[in-house]
Amino acid sequence: PLNPIPSSLLQTISGDLLPYLTSLINSSLTAGYVPSVFKRARVAPLLKKPTLDPSDINNYRPVSLLSFLSKTLERAVLGQLSCYLSQNDLLDPNQSGFKTGHSTETALLCVTEALRTAKANSLSSALILLDLSAAFDTVNHQILLSTLSELGISGAAHAWIASYLTGRSYQVAWRESVSAPRALTTGVPQGSVLGPLLFSLYTKSLGSVISSHGLSYHCYADDTQLIFSFPPSDNQVANRISACLADISVWMTAHHLKLNLGKTELLFLPGKDCPFHDLTITVDNSLVSSSQSAKNLGVTLDNTLSFSPSPGTCHLPSGLLQLAVGWAPCLCH
To answer: Which residue ranges does the record assign to the Reverse transcriptase domain (predicted)?
Structure first.
């Protein structure tokens, strides 16, 4: 079983176990080693919606479960790693995922504020929403470990993360049956405590690629939002954005990541006196045309930023966004 001792029982007697648990964590950190039993995952297929056909495998979402003790060890590492990254200003300021005090709401506020400011200054804007395919599963371990070295993570800390990433396996549990173990050779662990932070460090260098083309960006986990505001008379906009996306594609390939073109969206917000009211860009040799609205982190944005609710959408987030405009800049760092 994944947890031979139920977590509820461990929590009940935690006072008696605390010295032993502390010793286990310290030994793991000092040795730079993660016990193999902590690197086993149990994957449970979960039906995405109760109304979907349970006989269609595409209607299931894999949920990865890890042991209670392994996640306790990860939390100890997360605390120290986050402190080091914060003190040395090594976190991407434009990443709202996995940061204390940040959420999808802060990411939305930053993007919306940037678009509203551009509109107030009579500029046109393009919002490009990028989505990655199975991003957490394709992370290359050697590239990630090299990135961590560049951030100054070395010695036992680096060895511990290398041990944490390698030698992992998973089993699929369905009803009363459990599959044979299968090895995981790429990716950061799904359902883990550390995985999201490691992914954000893995993708940090993408920001410099975007900025080199004059575009701004904001991220939440693997959702990347590109913003380009420009004078309405600029007739090279599509070429400049496409050039940026071409370099992003090169970066993605080098980092073993892949854009999900089916979920890549373009929202064009024309400024005052703009001579054109739509835009087409090139992404991986495919054309993407602007639409009247796009869903960003669960909230539908339209090309006038009116936040007019569509049937079946939640009204509350967009209402909060309208009220919050004006103080968003204090959250965008």
So the answer is: 27-281
* Ramachandran area for residue 146 (φ above 0: left; ψ -120 to 50: alpha; else beta): alpha
Question: Please, are residues 209 and 251 in contact by the beta-carbon 8 Å criterion?
Answer: yes
pTM of the complete model: 0.85
Burial of 242 (0-12, 13-18, 19+ CB in 10 A): middle
- Quick one: average pLDDT of 154-164? 97
Which CATH architecture best describes the domain 104-136+200-328?
2-Layer Sandwich (3.30)
Whole-number Å distance between alpha carbons of 37 and 35: 5
Domain boundaries, the chain: 104-136+200-328
Distance CA 324, CA 41 (A): 41
Confidence of residue 285 (pLDDT cuts 50, 70, 90): confident
Residue 220 neighbours by CB under 8 Å, 6+ apart: 95, 96, 97, 104, 107, 297
Rg (CA), the chain: 22
